[in-house]
Automatic annotation (TrEMBL):
Belongs to the universal ribosomal protein uL16 family. Gene3D superfamilies: Ribosomal protein L10e/L16. The lineage of its organism: Eukaryota, Rhodophyta, Bangiophyceae, Galdieriales, Galdieriaceae. This is Ribosomal protein L10e/L16 domain-containing protein. It comes from the Eukaryota. One of its GO terms (cellular component) is mitochondrial large ribosomal subunit. The keyword Ribonucleoprotein applies. It holds the Pfam family Ribosomal_L16. Keywords: Ribonucleoprotein, Ribosomal protein. SUPFAM superfamilies: Ribosomal protein L16p/L10e (SSF54686). GO terms for molecular function: rRNA binding; structural constituent of ribosome.
Length: 126
């Protein structure tokens, strides 16, 4: 399944560059977005995360061959250019500047074109 388009939500954040994100960065962003959505809507909103820390990172040691693998130090997830990182269904647009300080990847805000067109038509009918 491709994560270059919004699948479930109305708003989201797209990565503008390819990088690795640490598990702590992903969790910090997720918690920050949940807090912003809860403050804006007054209730818990649906939030989908499309970057998973699924690559183990081991401590690099300068040893000869045959010593075995080092213990796992942490987990990282690969972020590709153009990939949707987070999306949510609440009708709340969160500015990228509020999130960018916690993220090592440059982000862009994305809106579902069908929802955007419907909201534009509603505004014109008033």
């Amino acid at each position: 399944m491709s994560w270059y388009h919004l699948r479930f939500g109305v708003y989201g954040f797209r990565a503008l560059e390819e990088k690795w994100m640490d598990k702590r960065q992903i969790d910090a962003l997720r918690l920050l977005l949940q807090r912003k959505l809860r403050d804006a809507t007054g209730k818990r909103a649906e939030l989908w995360t499309h970057v998973e820390p699924n690559v183990p990172v081991t401590k690099r040691t300068e040893k000869r061959m045959g010593g075995g693998k080092s213990p796992i130090k942490g987990w990282k997830g690969r972020v590709k250019q153009g990939q949707i990182l987070f999306e949510w269904a609440a009708p709340v647009e969160i500015p990228v500047e509020e999130i960018q300080s916690k993220c090592s990847v440059r982000l862009r805000s994305v809106v579902d074109p069908v929802y955007h067109l419907a909201s534009m038509q509603r505004n014109w009918s008033l």
